[in-house]
Structures are given as structure tokens and as C-alpha cells.
Amino acid sequence: MKILILNGPNLNLLGLREPDIYGRKTYADLKAYIAAVCRDEDIGFEIRQSNHEGDLVDMIQEAYGIFDAIVINPAAYTHTSIAILDALKAVSIPAVEVHLSDISEREQFRQVSYAGLACIKTFKGLGFEGYRKAIEFLKEYLSQGV
Description:
Layout: E1 2-7, H1 19-22, H2 27-40, E2 44-49, H3 53-63, E3 69-73, H4 82-91, E4 95-99, E5 121-124, H5 129-143
Parallel strand pairs: 1-2, 1-3, 3-4, 4-5
Helix pairs in contact: 3-4
């Protein structure tokens, strides 16, 4: 089993960007956390991040035939990107959406998740733990032969 973990804009600034919302741990800390979870679960993985919508779309498209599942934190593109939604739908790879903060309790414009429309589950407001839950969920989901 191999999972692609995609992170959208500004996640590379974790620890600097609004630490009261996103925490004080860095993006390097997040990558190390994800790597440890995947090793513990015996899951192959690749972690990628981009601040550019088209790059994220390309990464989703390139995942077809290579990855069994996607964990995606589209960040700000959650609320704006029909292109990411369409890419997720086009490849039909099981995807789980993750958000460090609880977007349902934030500003009104953050209430819509376009990417989430193509995802089988969403974890929000759990910080780094959301990634663990997403990875474990996908491992169980894929083991059922779906």
C-alpha cells in the first residue's frame, strides 16, 4: 500500500503562520510525524507540498496508477479550487481530507470544502493527529478491498 500525502499553500510555514490556530510545530515536524505513522503502519508514502494550485492538480493526476490513496490538506484551496476537486474526481483514488484547524468553526468563507466533495472522509481540528487518523482510516478502508 502506498499513500500520497499532499499539503497545500502556507503549510510550509507551520510554526510561523498563526501559531494560535495552527500550533507551534513546524512543517518539518509534520513530515517527521507522518513518516513515523506510516512506518508504524507499514505503509509506503510520499509527502509533497505546494503553494501552487496547478502543481497540486499535477500531483493528483500523476498519482494515478502509482498510489493507492491520497491524504490531502488543500489548505486555502479547500474553499476555492474546483480544479483540485475535478482532479480528485478524475483519478478516482480514495482520498481523505485533513485540516489542522476545525474549519467548521472558523470564518464563514471557510465553511465550503470543494475538495471534500471528492473525499470519502474528513478529519478536522485534530492538529497533526488528523493525519494519523486519515492514514489509519485509509489502511482499514483499502484492506476491505474497496
